[in-house]
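Now for our specimen.

. . .
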Amino acid sequence: MTTHTRLEDTTLAALISSKICHDLAGQIGAINNGLELLEEENDEDTRYYALELIQNSAKAAWAQLDFHRLAFGASSSLGAVVPLGQVEQVARRYIENNKRRVHWQSNLQDIDKENGRLLLAVLSVALTSLPAGGDFYVGIQGTSAGARTPARFKLGIICKGRSARIQEGVAEIFAGKEAKVTDTKLVVAYYASRLAAQGHYKISATKDGDDAVYTVEPK
């Protein structure tokens, strides 16, 4: 087995920054369109539509920023341990809509911040498995962080929906095989693989019948 080419940290940072900008561009553009409508239109129905567009887009942009802050950020205000309930709320706001649903089960109250980043990164990759929407079943097991024993966890994500798939290149990156990461399409999978290696975890992406399945397990 060959290992994938390691990206320079500056290249990884640039690709992640590009992904965040790309994800936010649509929502910020919609807010701008709503503001322009408010400036130009006097029709009450149009102005109501503009306000609704601004409100919905602002909520979506905030959900994306909150997710990216926890998944990719290094805020010292969060501390070394993060309440798992907070991670769940952030994930739900980011993923759920009228086409996507999250089913969450865990025996943990808290999670190490680095493990939380890994969890959200893998969940972000899993999101690409159901482009038409569906159900994400998230199961987390492990031990809470202690003074002497580092926290370890297991993660399983089952993606159920029409045409569930594993994005090309993801399984290879998770397995440590040679894979080129030259744009934002695979950068989160690569970021997750780096986090997993750093935390001594094994990650995988496989098809199980009609479902796409992602796992994280301690080595």
User: Anything to note?
Assistant: The CA atoms of residues 88 and 104 lie 8 Å apart. The radius of gyration is 19 Å. The mean pLDDT is 89. The longest strand covers residues 134-142.
